[in-house]
Each structure stands twice: as structure tokens, then as C-alpha cells.
Amino acid sequence: MTTVPAPRPVESGSAEILHHEGYDEAIVSPFVPAIRVVSNARLVFISGVTGAPVYHDHPHVPEVFDAVPADIAGQVANAFDHLDLALQAAGARRSDVVNLIRFFTNVGEDQDTVNRHQGQWFGGHIPTSSSVEVVRLATDHRLRLEIQAVAAVPA
């Protein structure tokens, strides 16, 4: 029988990382199976961010997106910069992120680059996450990634 590790506090102290039977610390993974938010945390829900400017007209004006990098490396860097801005506005840190939902237009081609950038960006913190491949993103057909997040900020 596998021993299940005790809950481990997230750096911010507002959540605990939970593992279950089958956990092997030797496996490299960009997500953990569960995070429990403690009662004194404030939840912050962050709308999906992409490589495009966060603030843009609706209906969309295609020319606004002409300056967005075409490659996934440029788009993921922009998306995480935009996530930083939203976290800062909420008084949150990267280590407060408890969940990511990642939408890819080509998961096979882009996931490794995104995982590398995400790992460096979090600097050792690993949130829960889901990755989904979609036909396209609503903002602009040239976008390849959208990231939605939830943070648990100490009260």
C-alpha cells in the first residue's frame, strides 16, 4: 500500500497541496491533483488571458492583433505577463494561483513550450490545471493559447 503524503502548505499559506495514492515525487508534472483552500483566503477569478492586449475593442478589430507574436513562445510570454498584471491588481502573488485552465489551438505542437515557460514563471509552485484543445480562440484566429486562473489570496 502506498503512503499518501501529508498536505503541504502552499507558499502563501492560504492553501494546501494534496496528493493521493500513486503519488511519486520523481515524476515531473506541471500540475498537482488537488489544492485545498483554507477558510481565511479570498478567491480571485481571473478571466482568460492570451498573447493579445487584455483591453481591446468588442467587436474585435483585427488590426489590434497584428502586433501579437505569431509563435507560441511569444504568445505564452505575453499571456503570463498579462496574468501577472491581473494578480498584482488583486494583491496576489504567483504562488497564490491554485488553478489554471489552459486552452490550446494545437496542444501537440505548443504544450511543451508552454509547460517550460509556466514552470519557470511559477518558480517551483505548481497549481492544479486542465489543458483543453479547441478549434480556435474567440479573440483572434492567430491566437494559440488562452489561460484562465483562480488564486487564493490570504485575507
TrEMBL record:
It comes from the Bacteria. GO terms for cellular component: cytosol. One of its GO terms (molecular function) is deaminase activity. It holds the Pfam family Ribonuc_L-PSP. InterPro entries: RutC-like_sf (IPR035959), YjgF/YER057c/UK114 (IPR006175). Gene3D superfamilies: RutC-like. Belongs to the RutC family. This is Enamine deaminase RidA (YjgF/YER057c/UK114 family).
